[in-house]
Amino acid sequence: MVSSKPERPAQRTTGIFEIVATALREDLGANDVTTRYVVDADLMGEAVIVAKSDGILSGAKAAAQVFRITWPPCEYAATIPDGTRLHRGDVAAKVVGPLASILTGERTALNFLQRLSGVATLTRRYADALAPYKHVTLLDTRKTTPGLRYLERAILIKDNHVAAAGGVGEAVRRARGARLPVEVEVDTLAQLDEALDAAAEIVLLDNMSPDDMRRAVEKTAGRALLEASGGMTLEGAVAAAKAGVDRISVGALTHSAPALDMSLEVTRTWR
Question: Is 97 left (phi over 0), alpha (psi -120 to 50) or beta?
Fold first, then answer.
């Protein structure tokens, strides 16, 4: 006999599945007690996720994964793709399945959507401000919510590493053993000279004035990529772009982005 009950998804330990599974465990603990006792197990439902403010949508994959691994699973259908500009009242997605599962996954799915859409919305503001400066790449930083960033692309030698190694040049030379691109943070133009002499691929100019950044660009003359960082407001990012740096990293994109207001609304139920 073949059972009509859907099988639980295979367990995986990396990437978005594990992040979502961890978020659900954190939110619900052993189970969603309220839904378990209040909502009939055989009640089906349909719900929509609605934008309550304007912004840029992001997080659909994470939200879909929430309803995919909530048991029994639900069908999540995005009606607007990630990266699209949302307006208040827009329906971002529809969720269909057991009502208990919809309500169990509601808060976790909204947390992902609101958090990631907030980051995307703030990022768009910076990207728009920097659009006239075609030579500049906008970057985020590692100042992220714990558990939401699992891929690091380069070695970054911060000021504390420099102090521990005894200088910028020595820190860069030691980092070569990792066989990854090396980026080193410098606070002064003298440290920039050390980094260039040690052949660092990327130099992070930390909290430098626009004038010092312009001098750093002249000194470097293309020998390394220059990244500006440190309290980058919109105005500061534009000033750094005018100075001629290659990259601008903005911690505020992740640590200070306000969540985009969104809600889940049940539109109908049936048995």
Answer: left
